[in-house]
Amino acid sequence: YITRNGRELQPTAKAFSLITLLRGLAIPQLCSPELTGEWEFKLNLMARGKLKRDEFMKEIADATRDIVAKAKSHESDTVPGDYGRLNVPCPKCGGEILENYKKFQCQKCDFALWKIVASRQLEISEVEELISKGVVGPLQGFRSKQGFPFAAIIKMNAEFKPEFDFGNDQNKDGEASAPIDFT
């Protein structure tokens, strides 16, 4: 959820997505520094003997039950929020594509693009370019599974699935190299 850049901690696209989810689920206290401050204050009261541990733990358990109940009451793709509508038709069926919490989804068929790819959140304009032109990039800000940053072009394949293109279409034996799958 965060990466270290020198002395700074920077939130990742996944962190911003989590904050959107928590706000959409009406769980703003987990996005607020006040919660941390309140807990620190109560821990200090406990250390001075002015608050019993059982009382504090009961408050935490009650808050946890409330948060879990709110989270369970929503389906994964129905998080309330201010989501966009793409200005390009679905490349598969020509239907309308809407943004939801996790992805860009066609309303008529199974076409979908994940919003976060390799720890980078795709912008609506980038997704529209990918759909309309079949290619976008090179884009900066991707991170490998080992955490290393990289840049890449994203191309749409014949099955309307996005793939990374690093510009090396052949491997060292002269054969076509395997594309990187986003699923």
Number of folding domains?
2
One letter per element, helices H and strands E, the order comes to EEHHHEEEEEHEEEE
- Please bin the fraction of helical residues: 25-40%
Q: What is the averaged pLDDT score?
A: 80
Strand content: 15-25%
How many beta-strand runs?
11
Largest sheet: 4 strands, antiparallel
What is the overall number of helices?
A: 4
Can you describe what's shown?
The longest helix is centred in the middle third of the chain and has 20 residues, at 53-72. The two termini are 20 Å apart. The protein has a 4-stranded antiparallel beta sheet with strand order 8-9-10-11. A 3-stranded antiparallel beta sheet has the order 3-4-5, with no helix packed on it. The chain has a two-stranded antiparallel sheet with strand order 1-2. The protein is α+β, with helices and mostly antiparallel strands and 183 residues long. The chain has helices spanning 13-24, 33-47, 53-72, 124-133, and strands at residues 2-5, 8-11, 97-99, 103-106, 112-114, 116-117, 120-121, 135-143, 149-156, 162-165, 180-181. Strand 3 (97-99) and strand 4 form a beta hairpin. The chain folds into 2 domains: 2-72, no CATH class; 118-181, no CATH class.
